[in-house]
Amino acid sequence: MMLKINNLKKIYPNGHQALDNINIEVQKGEFLVIIGLSGSGKSTLLKCINKLHPITKGQVVFNGQEISSLKGEEMRNAQSKMGMIFQHFNLIDRKSALTNVLTGALHKTSIIKSVFELFSAEQKEKAFEMLDIVGLKEKAFERVDNLSGGQKQRVAIARALMQSPSLLLADEPVASLDPATSHSVMDYLKKVNEELGVTIICNLHFLSLVREYAGRVIALKDGQLIFEGKPEQIDEDWFRKIYGEKAKEVFIK
Ligand SMILES: Nc1ncnc2c1ncn2[C@@H]1O[C@H](COP(=O)(O)OP(=O)(O)OP(=O)(O)O)[C@@H](O)[C@H]1O
Ligand SMILES: [Mg+2]
Predict the structure, then answer these.
(1) Protein residue with least CA distance to atom 27, ligand 1
(2) From the alpha carbon of 40, which atom of ligand 1 is closest?
(3) Cβ proximity of 197 and 27 under 8 Å
(4) Which atom of ligand 1 is the closest one to the Cα of 47?
(5) Structure confidence by residue, pLDDT tens digits, 70-84
(6) What burial class does residue 126 get, using C-beta atoms within 10 Å of its C-beta: 0-12 exposed, 13-18 middle, 19+ buried?
């Protein structure tokens, strides 16, 4: 088992309870998708998993280590095994695709070296390899602000892969992309999952994408886990329970 979440509760400092009594098990190699209305706690869950946010109660056990209790070096090691990608890519716009990917190796490079972009030949070779995986080798020296949204997200995937993660956390990675580009980016995530064996936990909005890419689905509502199962089990009844009586499904082709 790669990840086990036991009885997780998250209350933000302002008193808002964003997650309660969450229990999830994730096996190595899974493609798990988290769905739920805006505000249901999807991003909070990903941030609790990689300890960007401290949890209030419960445990997050990653590769047999309870990460909620890890500190310093041990915590950074655990976090380096978890890559993260975001809706808005979080790239350094004025730098090349290659330099952006290389920043994914920063935990292994001293600050001084990274300021002067002194990356080793080995790191550069790996960065090219990661760009190749997402089909962008020829854009290595292009500034990322000259790239399209889909290409930027692929650079972000390559950057996350630089740290050789065993788990990739993706927070609505295609929410700001058009439908065709969304599929292309999801296809690369699928490739990373199937060919590199990286376990993926991905928050998604569109159920049509969920049906196509998810191996398993978890739905959150008001911070509670209300559904766990295969994408094809989400029928009209479940759809209304998850998204509300008045919700209508929007299809992305
Ligand atoms: N730093 C914070 N402090 C206080 N409350 C927060 C904080 N971050 C999120 N929340 C609240 O916690 C709840 C869950 O937020 P979260 O961002 O996890 O939702 P989400 O499911 O990712 O939504 P979306 O689909 O809009 O991204 C929301 O009610 C939100 O307002
Ligand atoms: Mg969110």
Answers:
(1) 38
(2) 21
(3) no
(4) 18
(5) 988 898 899 999 999
(6) buried
pLDDT tens-digit series, residues 94-137:
999 999 999 988 766 666 665 666 788 999 999 999 999 999 99
Of 189, 207, 195, 192, whose CA–CA distance to 243 is shortest? 207
Q: Is the pTM above the cut of 0.85? A: yes
CB neighbours (10 Å) of residue 144? 22
- Token pair for 146: 């000259």
Q: Which helix (H) or strand (E) holds 18?
A: strand 17-26
Alpha helices (H) in the chain, listed in sequence order: 42-49, 72-80, 97-102, 111-115, 121-133, 149-161, 179-196, 207-213, 236-243
- Spell out which residues line ligand 1, taking CB within 6 angstroms: 12, 14, 16, 18, 36, 38-44
Question: Which residues neighbour 206 within 8 Å (Cβ) at sequence distance 6 or greater?
Answer: 182, 250, 251, 252
- Alpha-carbon distance of 183 to 253, in angstroms, equals 9
